[in-house]
Amino acid sequence: MQTYGGDTKNTGFQHVPAAKAWAKAHGWYHEGTTGIQTGDVVTIDWEGDGESNHTGIVTKVHPDGSFETIEGNTSPTPPGDMTRQTYQAGDPNIEGYLRREPHAGASVGRR
């Protein structure tokens, strides 16, 4: 458990800025949308206040740089529904993305 702003949170990263900070500390955070790939987790700033408050998982990247995501908690009813979203390359609401890089010597693929 870790504490953020006086609230105790588990390390499951319900607090998007905590996930972003953790990814930056590990070299896994990339600003903007350049280089985005399927499987990346985008951080979104819906309020335009400089603090990410939502995430989405990239499911498809188009040749023009636009991309599709799957996101929770974006549909009005019922709460928590999953929805697909499409964003343009360079969308100002997208602050960046997390991509976990494999550890050196790690086996990637099927076992």
TrEMBL record:
InterPro entries: CHAP_dom (IPR007921)
Coiled coil region boundaries: none
Domain Peptidase C51: 1-99
Region (Disordered): 46-111
Lineage: superkingdom: Bacteria
Name of the featured protein: CHAP domain-containing protein
Natural source organism: Herbihabitans rhizosphaerae
